[in-house]
Write a structure and sequence with these properties.
12 strands; alpha/beta; single chain; globular
């Protein structure tokens, strides 16, 4: 049974009399303990998806339609108090910048204890002991001393560890990590990702990793979903998707990785840029950047089809599979 199920989710932003679509028919499921990733350029809709799941979409954005179920219970439409029971306690979110989460005028300890006491009725002493234990569990040295420090006294990597410790206080079922290592150097990035991976495995916690970097995703996620202009365009097991990308956009993302270019060679890039919400092309939104675009790509939206062990939304792949089937039938 799926722990989290998102079905036909549509999110829009209201600008005057315009309704600008940000997510369109996004569907996926997540099992307990499973680790999945959403990848794509800035503006693909990855973060909006994360915010939608925890009901943090602010006006003029709103959920138009669709379903988000946690353990088969619909959470779209819950009131503020009901959502507060889920947010943090059942589904927790790690943001790009830990200073967005940490209060600069409160000590680390004050914030951790407050988080515990807001959901339980234990004493301050017990809450403090739990907080220190969690700081230790995320490999923070001298947790008693860090407990009394302010966020600005810690490094970026240390602050991100504090956020992970805060999330673990309430033993959530799902962690949504929105570009959790963007502001960190490469060494610290690897440490934070390894920490997240170990925590999810040890506690059987499901993870949704939001990233633009397929290199990072390959180290953490079991399954990857590629997003473009508010839609999922490809989904499959991470290693298979990286080794044999089907959608031209996925191929472009992989070719743009620095390791794909020789030393001194210009980096590959996808021509053009992600369309804005107000300027989304008709048909397949990627057609004006795609080297394989056909006439029907301009005004028709391709359906999802199976290609190998992945699913992909692309007319080119559809025609290639049709040609293969015809060739095999001809041999018979």
């Amino acid at each position: 049974m799926s722990l989290l199920t998102v079905k036909n989710l549509n999110v829009a932003f209201r600008l005057g009399k315009q309704e600008l679509p940000a997510l369109m028919d996004v569907s996926f499921s997540l099992d307990r303990g499973e680790r999945i990733a959403f990848v794509g350029e800035s503006g693909a809709g990855k973060s909006i998806l994360g915010f939608s799941i925890v009901n943090l979409i602010s006006k003029p954005g709103y959920i138009q339609s669709g379903s988000i179920k946690l353990n088969k219970k619909e959470i779209i439409g819950l009131n503020r108090r009901q959502m507060q029971e889920i947010r943090g306690k059942r589904i927790a979110m790690i943001f790009q910048d830990p200073m967005m989460t940490l209060n600069p005028v409160l000590t680390i300890g004050q914030q951790l204890v407050e988080a515990i006491k807001s959901h339980t009725n234990i004493t301050y002493r017990d809450a403090k002991n739990i907080a220190i234990e969690k700081l230790l569990s995320v490999q923070i040295a001298s947790p008693e001393r860090r407990f009394n420090q302010y966020p600005h006294e810690l490094s970026g990597g240390m602050r991100q560890r504090v956020i992970i410790a805060a999330i673990l206080l309430l033993n959530p079922d799902v962690i949504i990590a929105d570009e959790p290592t963007t502001a960190l150097d490469v060494t610290i990035q690897a440490e934070i990702l390894q920490l997240l991976l170990e925590i999810c495995k040890k506690n059987d916690v499901a993870l949704i990793l939001i990233s633009h970097d397929l290199g990072i995703v390959s180290k953490v996620a079991e399954r990857t979903l590629v997003m473009y202009a508010g839609r999922i365009v490809e989904e499959g097991p991470t290693l298979e998707l990286i080794n044999d990308p089907q959608h031209p956009y996925t191929q472009g993302l992989l070719n743009a990785l620095p390791q794909m270019a020789l030393p001194g060679q210009r980096l590959n890039q996808i021509k053009g840029s992600m369309p804005s919400l107000a300027d989304r092309p008709s048909g397949c939104a990627f057609h004006n950047r795609c080297p394989y675009a056909m006439e029907k790509c301009k005004d028709q939206q391709p359906e999802f089809i199976h290609s190998g062990i992945s699913t992909v939304s692309c007319f080119m792949i559809e025609e290639m599979l049709e040609e293969e089937r015809n060739a095999q039938e001809g041999l018979l």
